[in-house]
Amino acid sequence: MLRISNHYVSKVVFSLLFLEVLILIGSFYAGAGLRFFDGEEFVLPKLDHFFMSACVFAAAIVFSMSALGMYQINFNEGLRNSFFFQLMPSFAMGFCILTLVFYLAPELYFGRGILVMVFFFSGSGILLARVMFLKTSEFHFLESRIIFLGGGALAKECGDLALRKSSYRKYDIAGYIPVPSEDVCVPQASLLPLEEGQSLVALANKQRVSEIVVSVSNRRGGAFPIKELLECKLYGIQVTDAATFFERETCQIRVDSLQPSWLVFGGGFDQSFMRAFMKRAFDVMASLLLLAVSLPVMLFTALCIFIEDRAPIFYQQERVGKDGHVFKVLKFRSMFNDAEKGGKPQWAARNDPRVTRVGNIIRKLRIDELPQILNVLKGEMSFVGPRPERPYFVEQLTERVPYYNVRHSIKPGITGWAQVRYGYGDSVEDALQKLQYDLYYVKNNSLLLDVLILIDTFKVVVFRGGR
């Protein structure tokens, strides 16, 4: 895994993305050169913004491929799914985006003849790149050989995570090194006990491992081999904590096996002035753009709500924001007026009978969230961040879920990492799962992660129907 702006990115995905950007830009030049081939030499058209047009074309196609999930690779599905079911629709979406760009910036237009050639070369090149990655995924040199220090419940959970069918990274587990302080929960055949006089680094070299994952729940006492682990690290063997392993592989921070010191001394949690300034500037620009684009949809939604259930059109509800401050979030009303006539707050259910017909549609399309743009402009919310919860539920969850208040160290958001990764939640157990994604965002938030979340939000709204 690569770590870019605090976010873990698969080396396979990054390499494929980089290669396909080169293919798209190269195809643009090849298509233009072939289109204007005069029989003796290739002559590129004299456009003032030719390179800019190539970059816009590549950006439109990469965005479309990302929105359709082409970089959430599953090599087990084979080539047919990644090409016919995703690449062709991606190119169709890219064409629509380019049409809009050319309408707004006609100087970037490069002609239909070039566009046909460019799409042909791009499709062929991306297909060949995907075939290459599909074939290389079968090679064993892409596997990472690892040892788990520990043989208890935490080690078993880490091992199960490593053996899951992952598209991005393959592991070959050499075994588990048991420690005296915990019960063995892994199969006996997978244990690698240290022989008398054998060091941990000698065992690691014998097993040809490149990484040791420390998955011991109780590290107190003399049984924990801290000096041996330092020796392994000095010999070039990567030593990874179980919490970091979970964070890297699941993009979550697991609260059930988390050591408080890991949060204190680990990286992340950037609350600097520059990060706050960039996030606020991004929030304002994105909110104004979304407000301008979605205004007709918002007006039509307001009319539909009034026709079905009369006023009020909007619904204000207390939510907990940054540093525990309570504010009123603004949403389109999606439930009947007497949804909580008993006066006690209730979890919203997946098929909630209190939801109106219009409300059911706008919830699935996330249109009910659009008025929160005003909360963002007022500075009460951010465009991307943890979902704000009601004070009644926050009080309950703070008592029952460890580290729940950490999510209140930044502004809540209209969309967020937990919302695009986990989706709907209507219980304390769901709140725990979403918290683990929220903690990952709070720890690793960056402009790159915000952009990735917005792309995933677009995909959820347009192609999966939302929560």
UniProtKB/TrEMBL annotation:
GO terms for cellular component: membrane. It comes from the Bacteria. Its main location: membrane. Residues 279-462 form the Bacterial sugar transferase domain. Keywords: Membrane, Transferase, Transmembrane, Transmembrane helix. InterPro entries: Bact_transf, EPS_sugar_tfrase, Sugar_tfrase_EpsB_2. GO terms for biological process: colanic acid biosynthetic process. It is a multi-pass membrane protein. GO terms for molecular function: undecaprenyl-phosphate glucose phosphotransferase activity. Belongs to the bacterial sugar transferase family. NCBIfam families: EPS_sugtrans, EpsB_2. This is Sugar transferase (PEP-CTERM system associated). It comes from Pseudoduganella violacea.
